[in-house]
Amino acid sequence: MVGSSMNDCLFCKIAGGTIPANIIYQDDHVVAFDDINPQAPHHKIIIPRKHIPTLNDVQAEDETLVGHMAHTASILARQLNIAEPGYRLVMNCNAGAGQTVFHIHFHLLGGRRMSWPPG
Ligand code: 5GP
Ligand code: ZN
């Protein structure tokens, strides 16, 4: 597990600029960057600036923010030319689903054929 609180959270540090990442998009609410261990030709991570540990912690007040994360992913997919062939948007929730960084994030994966069901 990497970072279970705001003060010790890898993605808060990337959003704050204290840990480097190849940031491809940012605004007042979200940051998107290359995954350090890509699982596809395109593998981007989209995070909110707000520290929310898991999808289970999302509150009603966060709905617009999570929607903005998803919309940002679709805009990035278009820019990466993966919108038409297709891409996958994934959020792992808790360790049993493979979550290792406890600050919510979408994985945007594309540039290769995706199989289903996932592992
Ligand atoms: P999770 O397993 O929590 O769904 O996804 C965490 C993702 O963060 C993984 O795909 C992992 O490769 C990525 N990651 C872990 N540490 C770093 C880092 O320091 N920099 C970047 N850019 N990505 C990271
Ligand atoms: Zn955080």
Individual helix count:
2
The CATH topology label is: HIT family, subunit A
Instruction: List low-confidence stretches.
Output: none
| Total number of domains | 1
- CATH hierarchy: architecture: 2-Layer Sandwich
Q: In this structure, how is the largest beta sheet organized?
A: 5 strands, antiparallel
Instruction: Walk across the major sheet and give the strand order.
Output: 1-2-3-5-4
CATH level 1 name: Alpha Beta
CATH superfamily: HIT-like
GO molecular function: catalytic activity
InterPro entries: Histidine_triad_CS, Histidine_triad_HIT, HIT-like, HIT-like_sf
Pfam families: DcpS_C
Protein name: HIT-like protein
Structure characterization notes:
InterPro entries: Histidine_triad_CS (IPR019808), Histidine_triad_HIT (IPR001310), HIT-like (IPR011146), HIT-like_sf (IPR036265). This protein has a single domain (6-110), classed as 2-Layer Sandwich (HIT family, subunit A). The radius of gyration is 14 Å and the shape is globular. 20% of the residues lie in helices and 21% in strands. The chain has a five-stranded antiparallel sheet with strand order 1-2-3-5-4, covered by helices on one side. The chain has helices at residues 10-16, 63-79, and strands at residues 23-26, 30-34, 42-48, 87-90, 106-110. It is of the alpha+beta class and 119 residues long. Zinc ion is lined by residues 6, 9, 11-12, 51, 103. Residues 10, 21, 33-37, 45, 92, 98-101 line the site of guanosine-5'-monophosphate.
Question: How are the elements arranged and paired?
Answer:
Elements: H1 10-16, E1 23-26, E2 30-34, E3 42-48, H2 63-79, E4 87-90, E5 106-110
Antiparallel strand pairs: 1-2, 2-3, 3-5, 4-5
Bound molecules: guanosine-5'-monophosphate and zinc ion.
